[in-house]
Amino acid sequence: MRQEKGMIAWAKSRKGQQFFTIVGFMIIPLALLLIFTYFPFAEMVKFSFYKMKYTTPVDRRVFVGWQNYLDVFRRKDCFGALKLSIYYMVGAILQLFLALYLATILSFKVKGGNLFKGLMFFPYLINGIAIGFIFKFFYTRGFVFDTVLTWCGFDPANLPYWLKDQAVNNWALVGTSVWRYLGQAMVLFVGAIMSVDAGMYEAAELDGANKFQIFRYIILPSIKTIVTLNVILSITGSLSAFEQPFVITSGANGTGTYFVIMNKIAHTSQKVGLASAMAVVLLLIIFACTILQKLFFKYIFRNADAEDESYAAKKQRKKQEKALVKAAKLEGKKV
Amino acid sequence: MKKNIRIGDILWSVIKYVSLIFFGFWAVIPIVSCVITAFKTDAEYQNTSVMTLPKNFLNFDNFVKAFQQANMGRAFLNSIIVMIVVLIVSVIVGTQLAFVLTRFKFVGNTFIRNLYLFASLLPAVAMQVTVYNIMSSLQLVNHLYGYIIMMCGTDVISIYIFIQFLENIPTSLDESAIIDGASYWKIYWKIILPLLKPAIVTACILKGVGVYNEYYCANLYLMDDDLHTIATSLYTFVGPMGSKYNLICAGVIISFIPALIVFLLFQKQIYSGITNGAVKG
Question: What does pTM read for this prediction?
Fold first, then answer.
């Protein structure tokens, strides 16, 4: 009896209320996280040691040890597909530079800047399947891309089949990926550049710095966090490239990236064990890459931070000089 | 010296505008070609070059046909239902979680944060290899609610946005409310939720775009024709109609018109949403 009363009193106390709030507010999100992320993750590791289909009953799954992992590295179509990531990495780097360049232009006064920004950003809002159709149409022999190139003076007879010719088809897909995400990256950088103190640009211009110097010494240092984040994301993103080949070519003619192949093995061939092993292998690679990159950037910025400090000092000096110039001007007026 | 600067400035302006116009064109040509084609009759489509303008820009036949054949009315309804439920659930659940994680100290707080951090590294496509298995054992495949539950469950970005935002709100407000004797629910509902409004807008924009455009899981888990979302309804055009691009382009345009309208209305919020959402690292 007494204990019960104690319980009720406890439940009504601050501590008790806190406990119920914590439990009540976290139970649903944590349950969802466990069911849709960590439980499947554990299952994936388990399945990777079995030979099974989705429909195989639990007692008929065959334990095969490391066999699936060996297959991932032995089969030509599995691990070899990671080679295609290089195309996407090149695309991602190109995209990063273009986005930085365009963002720098758009961060300052430009006629029609908002229109250009909107035009370049909109592709990001189109759904993947629509993108697939748009670019199947775009790259079809004699259609949009060929017509545009003909306007530019290319001979239509010499143009390749963009999606079939293995010399160009992966570049064509990378191009669509850049088309789709360039605007988004650009908007991201514009936001970062805009958050830089405008006084710094004025000070630099007063000092006679040219555009490149402004970019190199003011813009780049202040947005390095977001650029770093983008580099990390673009490398892991290239390793797991999936959407463009999936919706445009379905991985035909040597465009099957690692995940496109994994998707086929899982949902078409129903080799769940092998697909799980593929997923686990790539996850390990992604983790390794993320950690390595974090360490790498930490190492680089260790020195850059010192540089920044001296920059802050410089800025301070510039401000003072500017004030002096102003004061001098005022005095000049007085005289 | 002064002249030099001027020439440099002029040159820079030229380069600037040439690049903008080039990339503007580059961004727009695939879409423009689609619009041109969507207005062509079958005969026109077969006999003219793809970049020739259609005779009649008021020929909406393809749009009507595409809308009916892909059953896009139903698809719009499904997409809207999915979007509304997912947004409401993830805002409520996400803000509550963020509230608890930023305002209470308890054993496992950091651990739970790390669980979410780690989850954000797992690529969705890879996870679907085994999530599929779980979905089918929970009997959630081929039901709209099953897809909705899954979409609510795989949400990390908005939680990050909420946590980040709450960490920048001083706790003095809730403390004074506690002294006044308000319950935690009241603090959450009356103080935290209204304060989080800008973060909620950001999260809804990012999540909304993601849900509206999601097709991989929708295709995997919603097989019945009645259950197609806008994105997957376009799959109707694969196969027998695979080369009737005037019809397909019309379907494609219908599918992104809502996104276009939202974009034109909320441009500023979308841009700032993209910027705010990225700073999670």
Answer: 0.85
Region B107-115 average pLDDT: 90
Residues of chain A found within 8 Å of residue B252, distances taken between Cβ atoms: 130, 133-134
| Model confidence pLDDT, tens digit, residues A87-140 | 999 999 999 999 999 998 998 888 888 999 999 999 999 999 999 999 999 998
The residue extents of the domains of chain A are 1-34, 69-127+166-334
Q: What is the mean pLDDT of residues B210-214?
A: 91
Nearest to A73 by CA among A285, A290, A287: A285
Residue B5 pLDDT > 70, yes or no? no
Domain B72-278: which topology? MetI-like fold (1.10.3720)
A290 interface with B at CB cutoff 8 Å: yes
pLDDT given at position A333: 43
Q: What is the Cα–Cα distance from B143 to B111, expressed in whole angstroms?
A: 34
Closest CA to A259 of B122, B151, B147: B122
| Mutate: best of B6, B62, B130, B228, partner A, most A CBs <10 A | B130
Q: Compute the average pLDDT of residues B194-216.
A: 89
DSSP letters for A3-70: HHHHHHHHHHSHHHHHHHHHHHHHHHHHHHHIIIIIHHHHHHHHHTTEE--TTS-GGGPEE-TTHHHH
Contacts of B188 in chain A (CB under 8 A): 21, 25
The domain made up of A69-127+166-334 is a member of CATH 1.10.3720.10: yes
Strand partners, A51: A62
Residue A137: its chain B contacts at CB < 8 A?
33-34, 37, 50, 245, 248-249
